[in-house]
Amino acid sequence: MKGEALANVTYRAYAKQADKENLPDVAALYRRTAHTELREHLTEQAKLIGQVGDNAANLRDSTSGESYEATTMYKKFAEQAKADGDQEAARLFSEVGQDEAKHREKFLQAQKAITDPSSGATIPTDVRAKPVEIQAGAPKVSSSRTLENLRTAMKGEAFAYAKYTLYGDKARETGQPRLARLFHRTAAVERTEHFAEHANLAGAVRDTGTNLCATIKGETYEGTQMYPDYARQASAAGDTEAADVLNGTAKDELKHAKAFSGQVSKLGKQCPTSS
């Protein structure tokens, strides 16, 4: 699920880069694939593991995640980046950690409003994303540790975006429009601010030719190795439905790899072969 979430937000960033290079077909393919990764693959897997609970359970999960990021993960990453001389990354990690602490407080307030209506608590909706444009380029940090931490943070923000999107959908379906807005607006912050800022420092987006080659490599790995392995394990454990979902996803990923390979050919480029 975390891989699918990361693919969703990364492909949306790749689509914008393709737009900048006047490659509408590539951009459209990335956006279609991003939609599939979130709204089909991740959503199917989320149903199998019961990721989405009732609104109170979803708020507890969100609060726990934000608390960990605010008090532990980003604090540690900031300290390490500062020690490694990556001052801009240290500043960013600290700033994002503060944002996550604010998200935690809003989720706690919403949780009180949901679980104890007589308390007079209201669900806050005053969350606003300030989108950051992702610029193509190489990493802007000197330490391999900081770079790895940025990539870890990107995965976390991508997964938070995906979860909050699903949680927001659940809230809307259950007649809680204010809670839906809180989840969806927080999701937008995680993707368009936090992920984007990390991506800029990590050099996560390059020129479209390079992006395509990275995409093909990832989709091929998932289609030929990761998902087939997971499906075999699920089948051996007697989880037939999971095995079917995982095998179906493997086939989809191979179709994606083929489609992206076609775009590479149209561009007259060639991806390096793995040794």
Walk me through what this model shows.
With 275 residues, the chain is mainly alpha-helical. It has a domain at 52-206: Ferritin (Up-down Bundle), CATH 1.20.1260. It is 78% helix and 0% strand. It is built from 8 helices and no strands. The chain has helices at residues 2-20, 24-49, 55-83, 87-115, 144-173, 177-202, 208-236, 240-266. Helix 3 (55-83) runs antiparallel to helix 5 (144-173). The longest helix has 30 residues, at 144-173. GO terms for molecular function: metal ion binding; oxidoreductase activity. Residues 1-118, 140-271 form the Ferritin-like diiron domain. This is Rubrerythrin family protein. InterPro entries: Ferritin-like, Ferritin-like_diiron, Ferritin-like_SF, Rbr2/Nigerythrin, Rr_diiron-bd_dom. It comes from Microbispora catharanthi.
Brief overview:
With 275 residues, the chain is mostly helical. 78% of the residues lie in helices and 0% in strands. It has eight helices and no strands.
Summary tags:
mainly alpha, Ferritin, 275 residues
